[in-house]
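Self-study notes.
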Amino acid sequence: MEALSVLDMFKIGVGPSSSHTLGPWRAAARFAENLGDKRTAVESLQISLYGSLAKTGRGHGTDIALMQGLAGKDPVHCDIEQIEPDVRAIRQTNQLVLHGGHGIEFHADTDILFLDDKILPFHPNGIKFQARLTNDDVVSETWYSVGGGFVIQETQDDGDSQDQIKLHYPVESAQELSQWCQQSGLPISGVVAENETAWRSPAATRDAVMQIWQVMADCLYKGCHTSGVLPGGLRVTRRAATLNSRLLPNATYSDYDSWRQAIRDGGEGFAYTLDWVSCFALAVNEQNAAFGRVVTAPTNGAAGVIPAVLQYLLTFVPGISESTPDPDLISRFLFTASEIGCIFKKRATISAAMGGCQAEIGVSSAMAAAGLTECLGGSPAQCLMAAEIAMEHHLGMTCDPIGGLVQVPCIERNTMGAIKAITASQLARHSDPSQTKVSLDVVVKTMWETAQDMNTRYKETSDGGLAVNIPINVSEC
């Protein structure tokens, strides 16, 4: 049984894509590490990208991520303002310093191959690294980026899973999760909290989860205060900052906390709240599209849904919004959301290259719906019902990014996912789960069957849908 932590589902990294940017970044870093003492003997290096990575990798900045990973840069802590200068220097000098300090001649335009007419059998996101040594030996590894920043080396188990970990409440399905909640009397977040002790102390988990929320909050705030045009060639204009200014025309604030207070004091009513939820989601995914620091939730392309819904909870819900954000409440939300994401990953997919956008925005909406439901007093059964409702109305959603960029329709889809999550939570909390006709497990199964039936053109290839009906010329990121 695969053991997944909340920190597996929520990874701090760099945009714009968890599968096409963060995953290749991590795979490249692991390949460089695996070379070990052979690094100093590397004479040349070639990287081949297959399937979806090849088709949309340029728009997603896959080549940029690979160079950063090979250089040993950490996506969690690296200076994101330095990414562009670093990559520009590699391209100009044709020199790449591998992790550990060994420099090699590297021509990004010819040493990174986008083989868009080929696909490897295990997963659409395949990467092959080949390092030629001074003695003419070749060190080769094949990796797969399977969604949400998870990577797997060929012939090995999931590089991120920890099957040897023994959990107090092992969960493979929504039914099992429900049974553990009934037997223990714990909410979903309580089951997750118990399981997390298999990895670290409760205090360490709390600190890590609050760091995750801090990155989300910083992303929300920065995205709502950064204007301009997104990179990549589509010339998409940022909207969150403009919307923020229109909604707070005369407000004075200096940081996230005073901004949240200004939002609370700036208006009321359904339309005002709806505008802000949309603004929150736009802000995060505009940052993501601009190679900003985000949290996979469960992916980068869907990174705005969960922060937007959590920010809605902290800003607009009476009894919660009046006080300083409660770390326990935030932890409960993220714990609950993560367990729903884990179920989808184990029993279906969180990769758009495997399942279309239902696997990203749909899963994130289901996660957010469950997290919100628990924090608003819903039972475990109502949390699962909320997740089911949210996913049920994303079934069949295709992934057809224009120009291979995580911008259109991806950014707006995060606003829709957030609103659906809130609506699903409302419906579930006013319903009797025992009367539901569709369970979460059935929806997960249906999503996976739909993914398998879906034409590959609609699985993050930019070969179908909007991507072929909007003529554009996209430049290098």
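Second protein, same conventions, sequence then structure:
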Amino acid sequence: MRYLPLTPAERSEMLTVIGAATIDDLFADVPAEARLPGPVPGLPNHASEMAVERHMSALAAQNLSAGAAPFFLGAGAYRHHIPASVDHLIQRGEFLTAYTPYQPEIAQGTLQVLFEFQTQVARLFGTEVANASMYDGSTACWEAVAMAGRITRRRKVVLCGGLHPHYGATIETMAKFTGDQIERQVPVLTAEPDHGELIAAIDGETSCVVVQYPDILGRIPDLPAIAAAAQAHGALLIAVVTEPVALGLIEAPGKLGADIVVGEGQSLSVGLQFGGPYLGLFGCREKFVRQMPGRLCGQTVDADGRRGFVLTLSTREQHIRREKATSNICTNAGLCALAFSIHMTLLGGEGLAKLARVNHDRARQTAEALSAVGGVEVLNSAFVNEFTVLLRRDAREVVRELADYGVLGGVSLGRLYPDRPELGHALLVTATETTTDQDIHALAAILGEVLANAHEGSPT
């Protein structure tokens, strides 16, 4: 057995050393009314390791996993092929054993990978600098908002309606502790995003504007226009990329005027894994580097003139006083960053562009197939690998029925926006290089059957 608990004799010896008669004596300072009188209600009693494994396996078998069915889910979490070589390389000792460089001078393998990772992210995002990764995309987005506040000394934050609602919720949660004023818009079901309301909300009190690229509906916003409007008022444009593969096909946001670019690196070599661990990406203009959260690796030479790597900036609370830190989120997902960097190295620039084109082709074929289904309307005029369709029925019900047929058909916007009934008929569909012709045919055929068997209605 892998779990070896203490023996009664060992417990007795430990109690003797600390001068306690029983384990209950350790909790003497806890009021009796705050102690549990017995087992926790609703939880089963202890069981053997094998019994627990059987029970957990039975629970897992109730899930319809991504690899067991046609899979069209996205909305910030994507299924891509992960080369077997990635898993092999991340287990090499020079990378794996010290992937958190608390003693950076003896973690040269880790620091070199993070140095390369920073270069890859900066080139991917079109920014001048990038840090050595962050916890995940949503918290990286909040860190960008906080950074913008330090730079502009303002507190008004405008969130584009196309921003993923989970990212918006993270920002709103953290803003409760900082006093930032959040103006959060909601998406409007149009073929192309209308930025008029967003631009009108920017004023002299605005710290930053946060725009997802592509947005939650799969549309591609006009970043240069938004950047010009923000910067005319002294505000910063923060671009959010939840699907980095898309940047193999569309222009990098840093080249379109974004001051800070953040994102989620999960789609490149980090599996879905029920929501984590994921990987935060962060890049910005070089003039803002001392306000950038996280860590920055640099290249130097040692006393003998040999190339070496160091932590150039470490402004996290683990390294300096908490009140002086630019970030208090201490996890930087170093192992996920290693996997991301290896995958990007294997792809190269041409490989990433080819992968993005394959994703777009698969998505385009899926959109064409669905547009031929009665009761389905494709919303987008342009997209990369995910797009929105309008159904004649509530999309939440349709998603559930598709799952009953063994198809994971997309993400309902009604699920993401439960308080916005006008979005209830919208379904976000994603296709990647893992999507096959058979998958597309199954989705179109079964969706047509589900809609045909339903009562007639019209999308809102």
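Instructor comment on the second fold: The chain has a mean pLDDT of 92.
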